[in-house]
Amino acid sequence: MAKISLTVKSESLGFHTHLEVIFPEHDVQNAKVLYLLHGLSDDCTAWGRMTRIYHYAMMHNYIVIMPEVQRSFYSDMAFGSQYLTYVSRELPVLCEKILNIRHVREKTFVAGLSMGGYGAAKIGLSRPDFYNAIASFSGAMDMKYRTEAAKKMEQNPLPETRAILGDVDVYPDKEDLFFLASQVAKMPSKPRMFITCGDKDFLLDDNRRFDAHLQSLNYSHIYKEWEGNHTWDFWEECLPMTFDFFGEPS
Q1: Whole-angstrom Cα distance, residue 194 to residue 223?
Q2: pTM of the shown model
Q3: Residue 157 above 80 pLDDT?
Q4: Alpha helices in 115-249 (DSSP H)
């Protein structure tokens, strides 16, 4: 396996940006592709620094693409850059050209932690035709609830909220995982979902609500929670289970 650090010019962002790639040295044509997304306080190097992702990529023959998105929540921001378009639309095309890979839905996956768990679900549900499966670890799965609850309590939401959403009174459907899942659940072909959260994680209720919502939709998914917190130790435990899940027949 090889680790590649790239700087690419993004038309949708309007500037150069970084990404990290884990790339197999052999059997590239049969390799699967995983878009692996970082959390709110991290960057595109975090997975490589903090976990054994290199080991799992080598074991399961994956190309792992880790983009940089700042604190954007993988959104097309009202006052900022178009990160959803970049990661879900432009980046795959750039990687196909630069890395000489060809998109095959059955071999394409997206996963992430915390903000990246939300991003993975949003990107996967926004493009159900593109991804075979989605994995979210400790994801911020109910941003609509959190944003509206902060307003009711007259608390300030995350400082990025206004930049992402703009001056709106109603939380946009395109940012709401519950709405997106309801739309995709009606489709004959949809990404499988694997969702995990630690039992002491501050986002546990978000994940339980989203699991209950998927159950109400009869959306095929696996939800797991066990002892753990919002930490790299927990997310390291998620990786082998995720690769096993991705390897299951669709």
Answers
A1: 6
A2: 0.95
A3: no
A4: 115-126, 143-152, 160-165, 177-184, 204-216, 232-247
